[in-house]
Design brief:
With 176 residues, the chain is mainly β. It has helices at residues 16-25, 49-57, 73-76, and strands at residues 2-6, 30-33, 63-65, 88-92, 95-100, 116-120, 126-131, 134-139, 152-157, 160-165, 170-175. It has a single domain (2-175), classed as Purple Acid Phosphatase, chain A, domain 2. The chain has a six-stranded mixed beta sheet with strand order 3-2-1-9-10-11, with no helix packed on it. It has a five-stranded mixed beta sheet with strand order 4-5-6-8-7, with no helix packed on it.
Length: 176
């Protein structure tokens, strides 16, 4: 199974074509978007929520999408795909994977998750950290990174997690 994870688009389009191209070149099975789809700084040149909607709709058969804290009901009604709120659980390669935006479940708040892989956004900073039996992963933001980070995404490839900056520099990786 090969999956691309992105988070915190915030209506900004500048790296979405790169993600689409990477998805196709790597022949990915799924794309997971961890929330904060449309709402963002509309003063930016690359802000276009309609383009973001078209991009996401183009993946609707291969998309798992989480609701972020900036996603409104009126925005979500426009989507031709399901958007999950809260915590989404799925079994991949015999591991329990949990997806959410990150404002409720994250490294500092695992809730009742005591094993598996928790993947979330919200913080706009990429990292892979282990807490007990839970691997916590944040791909960073594809559009609005914080700190000294560049725009980034996560690739899961048959048991290996790799976070890349948009320029293909490897940030970190972890092998299950």
């Amino acid at each position: 199974m090969r999956i691309i994870f992105i988070s915190d688009i915030h209506g900004i389009t500048k790296n979405l074509d790169y993600i689409k191209k990477t998805f196709d070149i790597l022949n990915c099975d799924r794309i997971v978007v961890l929330g904060d789809l449309f709402n963002g700084p509309s003063i930016l040149e690359d802000y276009n929520s309609l383009y973001v909607l078209e991009f996401l709709n183009s993946f609707k058969d291969k998309l798992i999408c989480m609701r972020g804290n900036c996603d409104t009901n009126s925005d979500l009604k426009k989507c031709d795909f399901s958007i999950y709120d809260g915590l989404f659980k799925i079994k991949i390669d015999n591991y329990n994977f949990y997806f959410n935006h990150g404002n409720s479940y994250n490294y500092d708040n695992l809730g009742d998750i005591n094993e598996g892989v928790l993947i979330y956004g919200h913080e706009h900073k990429p990292y892979i950290r282990k807490k007990g039996n839970v691997l916590c992963i944040n791909p960073g933001s594809i559009s609005l990174p914080r700190g000294n980070f560049m725009e980034s995404y996560l690739l899961y490839d048959n048991g290996k997690f790799s976070i890349y900056e948009i320029n293909n520099n490897l940030v970190c990786e972890y092998l299950l």
